[in-house]
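Subject: design request, 65 residues
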């Protein structure tokens, strides 16, 4: 199981962080081509595959596989 984030699609809306019951996500200090500090799965081992992040992401930037 893995948590993938397409950093170029992420607009750092923080919906994934706010909806994750296991606090898997954090915002980075890195900037994508659009100028956004994108989100990163810093604790992927804590993921319980609920897919709340994937469902709530308005830009389809997250995939749980």
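Subject: RE: design request

Done. Sequence follows.
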């Amino acid at each position: 199981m893995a948590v993938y984030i397409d950093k170029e699609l992420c607009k750092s809306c923080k919906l994934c962080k706010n909806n994750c019951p296991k606090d898997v996500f954090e915002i980075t200090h890195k900037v994508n081509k659009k100028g956004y500090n994108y989100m990163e799965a810093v604790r992927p081992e804590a993921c319980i595959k609920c897919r709340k992040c994937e469902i709530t992401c308005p830009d389809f930037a997250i995939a749980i596989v």
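The longest helix spans residues 15-19.
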